[in-house]
Amino acid sequence: MMLGACKKSFLEVPPQGQSGLTIDKFYTQVGVQQLLVGAYHDLTGIDTKSTWWGTSGTNWVYGDITSGDTYLGGSAGSPPHQVADCFNIENYQELATTGFLDDKWTADYDGVARANSVIIAATNATDMTAAQKNAAIAEGRFLRGHFHFDAKKMWNNVPYVDEKTVNFTSIPNTANIWPQIEADFQFAYANLPETQPLAGQANKWAAACYLAKCYMFEQKYTDAKALLATIIANGKNWQGTKYALTANYHDNFDVGTENNSESVLQINFSVDPTSLPNNANLGETGVSPVGTAADVTYGYWKQPSFNLVNAFKTDVNGLPMLDANGVDTSNVTNMKNDDGIASSAPFTPYQGGVDPRLDWSVGRRGVPYLDWGLDPGQSWVADQSFGGPYLNIKNMFTQAEQGAGFGGIISSYYYVGNSAVNYNIIRYADVLLWAAECEVEVGSLEQARVYVNMIRTRAMTSPTEPIDHSSGSPSANYKVSLYNTPWANQVYARNAVRFERRLEFAEEGQRFFDLVRWGIADTYLNAYQKVEQTRSVGSVQTGATFVKGKNEYFPIPEQEIILDPQLKQNPGY
Amino acid sequence: MKTHRLKLPRSIGFMLFLMVLLLCCQLANAQSLISGTVKDDTGAPLPGVTVKVKGKDGSTPTNINGAFSINAASTDVIQFSFIGFQTQEILVGSQTKLTVTLVPDSKGLDEVIVTGYSKQSKHDVTGAASTISADVIAQTPVTSIEGAIQGRVAGVTVDGQGGPGNPETIRIRGIGTLGNNDPLYVIDGVQIRVGTSAGSQDISNLLNPNDIESLTILKDPSLIALYGAEGSNGVIVITTKSGKMGAPRLEYTGYYGVEVPRNLPKTITPQQQADAYYSSFINAGLTPPTSFYGTGSSAVLPDYIIENNNGSPNVGVMAGSPLANPALYNNQNYRILQANKAGTNWWGALFKNAPTENHNLSLTGATDKSNYAVTFGYLNDQGTLLNSYFERYSLRVNTSFKIQPWLKIGENVEFSYSSQNSEGRGANNDIAELYLISPLLPKYDIAGNFAGTNGALILGNTGNPYTDRVNSLADKSYTQSMVGSAYAEATIIKGLTYTNQIGFQFFPNEYHGYFPTAYQEPVPITSNGVTEGGSYTTDWRWLNKLAYETTINHIHNITALVGYEINENVSRSYGSTATNILYPSPNTEYLGNGTVIAGPGSGSGSKTTNLSYFANVTYSLLDKYLFTATARRDGTSLFGPQEEYGNFGAASAGWRISKEDFLKDVSWLNDLKLRASYGTAGNNAVNVGNAYLTLLATGPFGNYDLGGTNTSSLAGFYPAQLGNPYLQWEVNKTTNLGFDASFLHNSLTVAFSWYDRTTDKLIAQPPSPGTAGAAAAPIENIMNFSNKGIELELGYNSHIGQVKYDMAFNITTDKNRVNYIDGLPGAFIQGGVYGSNGAIYLTRSVVGLPVSQFYGYEYQGLYRTPADVSGHATESSLGITSTNALGNIMYKDLNGDGKIDANDETNLGSPIPDFTYGYSLNLSYKKVDFGLFFQGSYGNKIFDYAEAMQEYPNQNGTGVGGLLAGSLNTWSPSNPNATLPIFAQNSSVTSPTPPSSFFVQSGSYLRLKTATIGYTLPAIKGIRKLRVYAQAFNLLTITKYKGQDPEINDGNPNDLGIDYGTAYPISQKFLFGVNLGL
Lengths: 573, 1078
Description:
The complex is a heterodimer of chains A (573) and B (1078).
Chain A: H1 2-6, H2 29-41, H3 52-55, H4 60-64, E1 70-73, H5 80-90, H6 99-124, H7 130-155, H8 178-191, H9 204-217, H10 221-234, E2 263-267, E3 301-304, H11 306-311, H12 358-361, E4 362-363, H13 384-387, E5 391-392, H14 399-403, E6 423-427, H15 428-442, H16 445-461, E7 467-468, E8 473-474, H17 490-504, H18 511-517, H19 521-535, H20 558-563
Chain B: H1 2-24, E1 31-40, E2 50-53, E3 59-61, E4 67-73, E5 77-81, E6 88-91, E7 97-102, E8 112-114, E9 119-121, E10 129-133, H2 134-139, H3 145-149, E11 156-159, E12 169-172, E13 184-187, E14 190-192, H4 203-206, E15 212-218, H5 221-224, E16 235-240, E17 246-260, H6 270-283, E18 304-307, E19 315-317, E20 335-338, H7 346-350, E21 354-366, E22 370-382, E23 389-404, E24 407-421, H8 430-434, H9 465-471, E25 476-493, E26 496-515, E27 529-552, E28 556-579, E29 596-597, E30 602-621, E31 625-636, E32 645-656, H10 661-664, E33 669-683, E34 694-698, E35 717-722, E36 730-743, E37 748-764, E38 780-800, E39 803-813, E40 815-821, E41 828-834, E42 840-846, E43 853-856, E44 859-862, H11 866-870, E45 889-891, E46 906-907, E47 915-925, E48 928-938, E49 941-943, H12 946-950, E50 1000-1002, E51 1005-1016, E52 1025-1039, E53 1068-1077
Parallel strand pairs in B: 1-7, 13-16
Antiparallel strand pairs in B: 1-4, 2-3, 2-5, 5-6, 8-9, 10-15, 11-12, 13-14, 15-16, 17-21, 17-53, 18-19, 18-20, 21-22, 22-23, 23-24, 24-25, 25-26, 26-27, 27-28, 28-29, 28-30, 30-31, 31-32, 32-33, 33-36, 34-35, 36-37, 37-38, 38-39, 38-40, 39-47, 41-42, 42-43, 43-46, 44-45, 47-48, 48-51, 49-50, 51-52, ...
């Protein structure tokens, strides 16, 4: 016994139990798949260190409330810590110490780490062919590209981490990492299959679309135009269905019709009792209307702004209210609303023409809020003086869906508002409107108009739901038409395309990043702030100013600079 | 017969001896046979007493009846010596029959130092060690051994933790590492994992302090090196009781007493809170919300609180409001509470006087062939916090048998069963909630259900701690432990002993909890449920030891020891929760009665193995020159294959200078020994699995609905813990110089040590960069720091007339310095995480300063005038602008760049005391004894960041907190000399308030730990001993610290000196006890 115990093996005890899963156990096809699922999970943004709102894969904190489209909402008495961070971000007062930013940084790079684990396991897998390995590595690199992209658009100066990185305390952020991000998507484009067995998986064309998105952010319009043309000609979704806009606009925001022909890459949320709450849209928990069966208390955040709602007004021709230079005039007067009017007081909704996408994006008084009934106005809003009279809709499940278990069924408090409604990271409408942008910049205005009209056609031909079920007639004066005449000039065309993008992607976490990549964030947002500060919407702070050259990007989290002194702070912070 | 046979050779020897003497020395004195008996102070015969003629060779032991006979001349002095008793000398004179009574020596047990693997005479020990005897432990009837150590021993600091059964913190010679600093315990030769390391147990669960015969604290490198990889934090060697030769003894010791909460915080009234809240809005230029305190210009307390309010925020209404119509009441979503305008005394509701009792019964005895000690103990410590308690039953059986003259076998085993419901420290524990909950909230709503805050900020946005405590009635954890060893000891040839010992530990642990439905909580519990689980740990250890002892030519004493030890520790844990328990009651709250099992349950395990070789040699020449050398080689599974073995060693030398001729005639000096030692020991306290690169996990953070089903997800795995196969042992290198001395007929004793303890390749888990993802950081060898200090122990005993007294004083200094941190210049280690998402670190370790310095801004006062604002560096990075600055804190612009930012943060003081000390005084007069014991700490700072939440009412711009008396003295134009900053609902100001010296206070204290008065009853026939006593604990505390209690360290070296306001308050205790011996 004594001699036996002396053997070296006595001291080599692999970790046991829950900590017994070392990565070498995953060097199999099944293991690679399991790591891949884990990496896809991080699309939700909910990792072990995350703080729901601050890390949400939907980016509503960074892309929406910063963009003039959305108020933080809520009320002055909302849960303190998280709101304080959102509040500062909404008002361009975020600091390097703002906790949300470090959480977001960690969430993006956790995604990178998980993607790298896929690449490592696939490289070492013992039961996979070279082709299978390549495909798995391509999927890992696709995800790695996504998470780096997400960080890049947040901070611009970010480090690049690949599967060989070991020392995380001395990685610089001074080099431009677009080439590495592009390389990951290029590899994925070249090596991913055209179809995938599971709806949430990225295929070859998803990689192509993401590569095009990179080009758009790099203003490489020529490269983008060519690639987008290829995608429009040949692109297919995960099932091999040719990319096409769905007939019904709302199908992109509905549990029953997700992963459709328009889907390029979605976050596949689920209301799943075994993985609660982290597989539902936890990052947007609390953005449902207050007082409904879908909510207990945290509802009422992420409220659409007056400015956004006004943008959906259409002129007599059913076109957006743009002047001869394509400048938005819709905000000269507010759309009639119930701000300050009790639910018990009578109110008739706005009777002017509106784009029907409004009522698939925004909850407003007197119009059906999906199938939850007519929006009663003030009583569904926590505090109109804080976040305005409007409600968010796009990530909300319907009452029928809730009944079927797709949302809001979870007994524990925080998760009551949880939603299985997917979020579109990229949908085909993006592709068309990027293509339109490219045509405006380096191609033909007429071709741009064609693409925009494709988007508007769908808006026109979509069912003008929601119907007021009590009367059976449309809820509002829906009036939308195509641009039937050529655009006068490039300036007008550019503005029209950008305006279309705003309407199409309202409340989808994109707007702020679009404003920044167009280079108009400072002028646009300061003009917006000037008006908002006269409205006394509580969540908009007097004195909030967007500083050019600074606020385009968020500050590198101080904690990260402390731990990696090679990281340089962004300008202005 | 036996006696007679023994006498004969003695006589012959004597005759021979006499002849030699006659021939050589021509001594005139006639020798005669002196006989007699030796008894102890109770009159029981003492066998085995060494009887010798002073100044001559040869001695004889007393027999089992205490009888002896020895030849001596009338001018001879006969010495009677026995371990544990004072040596007595008697001049023979004309006596031939002696009756000698030996007096127990309170220092007696100090004579032998038990190092775990061996025993050494204290005179021969060349390293620093301190011993606490059973007598001292008996003086302080503590529930756990930590209480017996606190303040008694130089070089050892103990931080008391309130709460029944909560483990206290023992630190030997300062903070040696950023990880586990718990000392190693060795009970009857078996190493036990207790404290915070993996698979460890709380010592109070497995050892009844009443069973301790002696407790030795090994501090010196020459002693701890023998424990190699686990010895670096010092070793506490415990020997449990064994029988004494003679008739069986039955002894009862016990006490009954009451614990009284001390220094509970005082809170403000609901009206004061409302007024402060109101003005906080006005101070920020905002209109106060109308939902609670009316619409007027000043706050009016509501009569009723509508809580939950059908999902809308809570409101306060006046009597007669239709909202307060009781018919609307609905426990799930419309609860009506009658506001308690007089203020609910939450502290009073949770804390009460509590009984505490302890009973021990022991039966001990020994013959020359066998030895036994059977002890039974019962402890019931009801905590001052509602429904908290610690209860322990213990049974110890120690026996040994001399089967053959050369073979001894024995065992020591303690079985104990304990159950506990207490409140440990945690961010949102019941204590923390007490600081937040509004006094306006009643205990119950109008229907008699518990009242809650439902997340309302005005009410504290906290769970109701009263509800939590009442509902915790069913929450218990149970630990059964079986700890012990069995051994055989064979004397192969004279002086050579082989020992084979099996040590074992078995700890099954279970917990059970029931949580009722609680809609009123901030996170409503919409279904009741039962949580159950447990763990077990088995640990076996096999020791083979060969020891040799010899004396050559009467002057060379040599001992040698070689040993081999292997160990395996396996643990497994599991847990599950069931909800929707039907008809809940104590007899139905079982998992099987739940209708929904929430989740798959938890379960995990660990296994570690260790393998060691060790050797030790001691050599003494003429009993004056002492040397030891120790070597140990340890292997452990905790490290990667390249690093699994470590070598440790030590050497020491001692010089008993008092034995030199030139000091022989110095009558006031009884003993003086100089000693020096150097050695290394290790620390292997790392997570199991760290030796493996990346550990993966699955579950809600990895699963994903990749298939787009909306209602299910696929199992996904993700990196959860990064490992480090190249991690090495953390090494402690210690140099120790000192002396032990006794003076004035041993009435004054002095022990002094100077030590330099350097921790190299320090094991720590530094914060992980977010760039590495969300996986837990790997453990690394990142640092080097040193602890240098002195330890002084003084003892004095004497008498004034019939008043006998003894006193002991000890003092320790420890200076810690960080010498090196891995990485770039200026690298540092952060600690003391504060805040919900861990964004704030309160401490920092930097090269050149003590470890875990408080870190933040320097407080420079408040902005009291506009001139202060315009004249001060901008604090815009904290959200403080020229328009909102008045009343806020001014921080010092250390680098003078005109703006306050991270570059102005600095070190704000050290949690490490300049010195700690203890003083005890015992007086006795005839049958009455009286004792006082003081203990204290000086020069340490406390970071009372809890104050930011508890007293300073502006955290997060929400108006929570600020309930303590004193919190009203906030700045306002009408109170320009306030001590606290403005209370304003200004959301753009960074919150919580950044760490600064504003929150740093002196943590020095002096505590009268115990005061005792006892009376020993006169001898009664049949009763050997009867003493009654009364004792008070924590009667007096002198401190400037404003928080609840200055003893705040919970053992985490990164959190040293930080008061999180979550500690279970330390109480006062008043006991009445009895010691009865038959």
